[in-house]
Amino acid sequence: MTRPVQITTGVARVLAALLDDPGTGRYGLELMRTTGQPSGTLYPILNRLLAAGWVHAQWEQIDPVAEGRPARRYYQLTPDGLVAARTELAALYAALRPHAPGHADPATGRPGTVSPEPA
User: Fold this and answer.
1) pTM for the whole thing?
2) 61 CB contacts (<8 Å, ≥6 apart)?
3) pLDDT, tens digit, for every residue of 30-48?
């Protein structure tokens, strides 16, 4: 079970990056490059997502001496986190996108719909 997470711009960027390929773990530097966020912003977001149960993390099993670099910690959406992330981002995009035919929803790739005019 997951806990709610406040969807800020930074959180939305991290979730979108993780949703790009939900079956693949992403490490911190990769996420910093993808989202454009510095480590001081990214890691607190990842810690909130971990605490909420949306993401799990796992250290890679390597010999740092043999690889010539430190081990990486990979972050990946949990099954519940995947559902929550898709739901939250779809709601965010629906609130922000123009309601006109032909505008694709970034979360689904499907065209937007025309909303009825208020009476």
Assistant:
1) 0.79
2) 71
3) 999 999 999 999 999 999 9
Q: Extract the tokens encoding 20.
A: 């790009």
- Residue 96 to residues 11, 49, 66, 106, 116: CA-CA distances in angstroms? 16, 23, 48, 11, 16
CB burial of residue 44 (10 Å; 0-12, 13-18, 19+): exposed
Backbone dihedral angles phi then psi of residue 22, each to the nearest 5 degrees: -60, -20
Number of alpha carbons in the 13 Å side-chain half-sphere of residue 8: 10
Do 98 and 80 form a contact (C-beta atoms < 8 A)?
A: no
Of the candidates 97, 21, 95, the one whose C-alpha atom is nearest the C-alpha of residue 111 is 97
